[in-house]
Amino acid sequence: MSQVVPTAPRPGVRIQPSADVDPRAHIGAGSSVWHLAQVREDAVLGRDCIIGRGAYVGTGVTMGDGCKLQNYALVYEPAVLGAGVFVGPAAVLTNDQYPRAVDPSGRVKTADDWHAVGVVVGEGAAIGARAVCVAPVRIGRWATVAAGAVVTRDVPDFALVAGVPARRIRWVGRAGVPLVAQSAGRWRCPSTGAEYVEQNGTLTEVAR
Fold first, then answer.
1. Residue 97 falls within a domain, yes or no?
2. DSSP 4
3. Is the dihedral angle over the CA atoms 36, 151, 145, 82 positive or is it negative?
4. What is the pLDDT of residue 20?
5. Same domain as 63, residue 144
6. Same-domain check for residues 198 and 109
7. How many CA within 13 A on the CB side of residue 52?
8. What φ, ψ does residue 112 adopt, rounded to 5°?
9. Considering its fold, how many domains does the chain have in total?
10. Could you tell me the residue range of the domain that residue 93 belongs to?
11. What's the rounded Cα separation, in Å, for the pair 15 and 158?
């Protein structure tokens, strides 16, 4: 029976004894790694991140400040998460575009037989429970991926996407609340009052 090796103390970081955090990983101050989570070598987590129970952070994954991975979320290298990204329970960010366990001859593939491709998630974006983001894709700033969606192409900033494959169904603001149309190409957040302009399929914030 394997034995959990305690992680060396890291000032300002909370790591549960059952978590597996490689000593070569960088964990920012104020961050928490909860029960049975795994953070691999050379991963870089910003300040005040939360890694939920059973979550996985792959080798060299980069996460900005204030990110939150819910229970059993799987983030495979070389994913890059901006500041304030939310990844819901059991969501998956993949890294193998053409997955196979063996090559055409039947030989078992090794790490040298494939090239990892990653998912890039912009600042403030949210990925819902059990969603799958199939690399290589980019999730835009403050976008929302609905629970159970399968993302196979890039998601614009502030877009709400849902379905299999995921398609944009609404626009959302920084608060994550669907925007309300004001006039042609003009949108408003009912939560914050912030205004947005849509042009050629792109949404931008109106400076106050």
1. yes
2. P
3. positive
4. 98
5. yes
6. no
7. 16
8. -80, -5
9. 2
10. 14-172
11. 33
Q: Are residues 95 and 190 in the same domain?
A: no
Classify residue 196: in a domain, yes or no: yes
Give the tokens for residue 204: 């931008």
The answer on 196 and 99 residing in a single domain is: no
**Identity at 200, one-letter amino acid code:** N
Per-residue pLDDT of the chain (208 residues; tens, 9 = 90+): 334 444 555 778 999 999 999 999 999 999 999 999 999 999 999 999 999 999 999 999 999 999 999 999 999 999 999 999 999 999 999 999 889 999 899 999 988 888 899 999 999 999 999 999 999 999 999 999 999 999 999 999 999 999 999 999 999 999 999 999 998 899 999 999 999 999 999 999 998 7
Question: Do 162 and 205 fall into the same domain?
Answer: no
Q: How far is CA 68 from CA 71, 82, 105, 155, in A?
A: 10, 11, 42, 20
Same domain, 20 and 33: yes
**Rounded CA gap, 12 and 30, in Å?**
5
Predicted pLDDT at 8: 54
| Same-domain check for residues 29 and 130 | yes
